[in-house]
Fold this sequence. Notes:
Layout: E1 13-19, H1 27-38, E2 42-48, H2 54-63, E3 68-71, E4 85-86, H3 88-93, E5 98-101, E6 107-110, H4 113-124, E7 135-138, H5 142-153, E8 159-162, H6 166-176, E9 181-184, E10 198-201, E11 225-228, H7 237-244, E12 249-250, H8 253-268, H9 276-283
The protein binds 2'-monophosphoadenosine-5'-diphosphate.
2'-monophosphoadenosine-5'-diphosphate is lined by residues 139-144, 163-165, 168, 202-205, 211.
Amino acid sequence: MTAATTTHTGHTKLAGVIGWPVAHSLSPRIHGFWLKELGIDGAYVPFPVKPGTVEDAIKGLVALGIAGANVTVPHKEAVIPVMDDLDQTARRLGAVNTIVVEPDGRLIGRNSDGYGFLENLHANAPDWSAEIGPAVVLGAGGAARAIVGALLDAGAPEIRLLNRTPARADSIAADFADKRIAVGEWTALASHFDGAALLVNTTSLGMRGQPRLEIDLGSLPPDAVVNDIVYVPLDTELLKSAKERGNPTVDGIGMLLHQARIGFMAWFGGEPLVTDALRNFVLGS
Ligand code: ATR
């Protein structure tokens, strides 16, 4: 039984995740685990919100006294016009994944994806830090944008951005307007591995039901960290190949776990930690 079902609803802090579809979101498990572990009187639930109705849903958060929400596909951009303010990261990315309702009802849009990405690497590849060498980023969707921003902020000397559709990579490079971003050829992935300290897959390739990520790691330095943000399956073909040749690897679930801390602390308080117990609970093992 969760804390929420045993407490006085008048004091129970509420939050949730807004998406469509949202039933498969792991966020309720993450927040449910922390609420119980920290003994906080709260509840976190999925809110299935159809495209086109997100503005009403967000206004409903305020009307219902809900502390805030995570925002996932397809609403991360659509919620922006309803926000009263955006933090610097959400503004720069043009995407919100965490909404905080202030005590006066003001809506603040934040984005914790880049934070989750960096924290996951720091926790699981302790010898890596952004400034030690070039990063190769595969993909140019919303996740890539958050990751590129985080790597730039953390001092990466060079980011090689490779995407099937080069115009999307060009658009990220143009928006950040930072000379450290170099857009390269998707058809020649391996030619960009020279001296790399990090290789990250942000594409959906390798995800269950999606095509394979065809990649030859032969020219990747043996000490380069390989991170896949795909976490279904957890042990992707990319991570398996990297492990086989001895590269340090970091799987994708940690980014999701770490990004969740920002919302939890804002809505419920406390000091939620990313532990093996949380990870095993969320993965259902
Ligand atoms: P997210 O916001 O989660 O990052 P997205 O915006 O849908 O998701 O981005 C998906 C990424 O996977 C993109 O980089 C996409 O490449 P395109 O920009 O060329 O579409 C990449 N991707 C998806 N399917 C792919 C495929 N079959 N081959 C190569 N890249 C693919």
